[in-house]
Amino acid sequence: MYSRDFYVSGSISADFTYKDNAELYNKVEDIPGEREMLIQGSKHLLDYAKRVGRKISILDVCCGTELILDFLSSDFKNRLESFVGVDISQKYLDDAKKRIGSDPRFELVNHDAVLFRHPRKFDVIIASSAYHHIEDERKPDFLNNIFNHLKDDGIVVFMENIIPKYSNRVERDSAAIEFYAKRIVDCIDNHEIKDERISLLSRVMQYERDREYEWKSHYSLFTKHLAAADLEVISVKKVWPKEKIFSDNNVGDFVFLVKKK
Ligand SMILES: C[S@@+](CC[C@H](N)C(=O)[O-])C[C@H]1O[C@@H](n2cnc3c(N)ncnc32)[C@H](O)[C@@H]1O
């Protein structure tokens, strides 16, 4: 077993990655916080479907392997009219297809979620660990695209890892390093996680430092971007960490319920 110092150093092989590797991706998502975001997100979907009292349409942007389907009850699935999942990785979509089977209500599209256009608007848009995978300069277009695909009375469920506040590139590096170093220590010390998920979390941190594949934001920047896209936050729930491991309470894993302004 590697020492804790090894894991927090970020010095791991670039070849060992969850990017486009569905098996490793599903594994690294199986940690406290990531699971709770999907659980909380699926509750919002059920609540919305019950509230509107009709079958609903869903667009899932950056849907990946469609892990959220594991958290949706049969009660919810009975309330589903149609479900479109969009992702840029065909390998992830192939894995998503295994979760969906032959259910004709589902459509998976291999496309850039910023440029994707669909002729209809949706009741619910899921953006689970999606915004932080879009390059900074394209984030406004991504959010505008979400707005344009949302019905006027629809909701968006954002699930996001929010890093400490930063005001420049160097501080952003430090923020991402603090976020992942503490996350790794929490996994090892408080949740007995000692397998390859630790190396995969180091890989996430390294992507942030390399400015490749992962571009996380701090809380006020994310909410500012939402407001600029005419999206209003209805509720926010922080699901990780439960303990105070960051000095700023607005750091961790969050589920944002959002509507059109
Ligand atoms: C962290 S995963 C989230 C997957 C899934 N939503 C979940 O919560 O498990 C991020 C996903 O974004 C996808 N992605 C990255 N850039 C994208 C883009 N420009 N358009 C569509 N998908 C993108 C990746 O392929 C990956 O599946």
Automatic annotation (TrEMBL):
Q: What is this protein called?
A: Class I SAM-dependent methyltransferase
Mind listing the UniProt keywords for this protein, alphabetically?
Answer: Methyltransferase, Transferase
The residue ranges of the Methyltransferase domain are 58-154
A Gene Ontology biological process noted in the UniProt record is: methylation
Q: Which organism was this protein described from?
A: Candidatus Iainarchaeum sp
Q: What is the lineage of its organism?
A: Archaea, Candidatus Iainarchaeota, Candidatus Iainarchaeia, Candidatus Iainarchaeales, Candidatus Iainarchaeaceae
Q: Which domain of life is it from?
A: Archaea
Tell me the SUPFAM superfamilies matching this sequence.
S-adenosyl-L-methionine-dependent methyltransferases (SSF53335)
One MF term in GO for this entry? methyltransferase activity
